[in-house]
Amino acid sequence: MRIGILGTGTLAVGLGAAWVRAGHEVLVGGRSPERAKAAADRMGGTAVSPAEAVTGRDAVLVAVTWTGLAEVLRSAGAAAGSLAGTPLIDPTNAVRHGVGELLPEDGRAVAEHVADWAPGAHVVKAFHLFAADQWAEGKPEVTVAMAGDDQSALDTVARLVRDAGGRPAVLGPLRRARQLEEVAGFVIGLVFAGVDPSSAVPRVEVAA
Ligand SMILES: NC(=O)c1ccc[n+]([C@@H]2O[C@H](COP(=O)([O-])OP(=O)(O)OC[C@H]3O[C@@H](n4cnc5c(N)ncnc54)[C@H](OP(=O)(O)O)[C@@H]3O)[C@@H](O)[C@H]2O)c1
Questions:
Q1: Which of 80, 72, 65, 66 is nearest to 30 (CA)?
Q2: Residues of the chain under the 50 pLDDT cut
Q3: Is the CB of 62 within 6 Å of ligand 1?
Q4: Quick check: CB of 93 below 6 Å from ligand 1?
Q5: Does the keyword Oxidoreductase apply (predicted)?
Q6: What pTM was estimated for this model as a whole?
């Protein structure tokens, strides 16, 4: 697949490296060409401008902090439709440090804001719950819960989840993304309280 990544930080490199290992072509762009080059070198991809990173891609990951999301999408031409028709993966955790409260105060999901900033893009919330090193080689398989409205985009992201070593699960349409984002806030809040979050949810045996 031809994958684009906006963002040059920890998650961009972690997922980019996993997708390169799986045989995908990865272009990476951010606001700093130097940091894009460093990230591309670490993941085995190619550094380009933000606009080039989203052009002609089968899927795009936007891996920047909540405060930089609107700006990086603008620099990639998203408002003018550069991502229209493209599966756009949003892994953002916009949470208040330490307590895990969600930051968007209008009650909407970050992923819904992303959909506003990238008209026509097929936004899929995914990859927000696990730390970037989860996608290093040899880690035990985990389930990546996703939300999105476009079935073909969900299928594409499901393939990218498998190629990174995860197991995809669709929770529902994009309006369920806020729920997925709240789960991250719940996990982060308990971790800061010194509690293992997996001890705070029931263990349920599900028939295969
Ligand atoms: N790291 C993880 O384990 C993990 C796991 C799940 C989800 N996430 C989510 O993934 C996203 C990225 O996290 P990260 O850990 O990779 O962060 P990071 O290492 O701190 O990197 C942040 C990235 O955001 C960019 N950025 C910040 N403000 C920007 C702006 N105004 N315009 C353009 N780019 C801007 C930074 O660019 P500069 O280098 O130029 O500042 C950098 O490329 C976050 O939303 C985070 O919640 C991270």
A1: 72
A2: none
A3: no
A4: yes
A5: yes
A6: 0.98
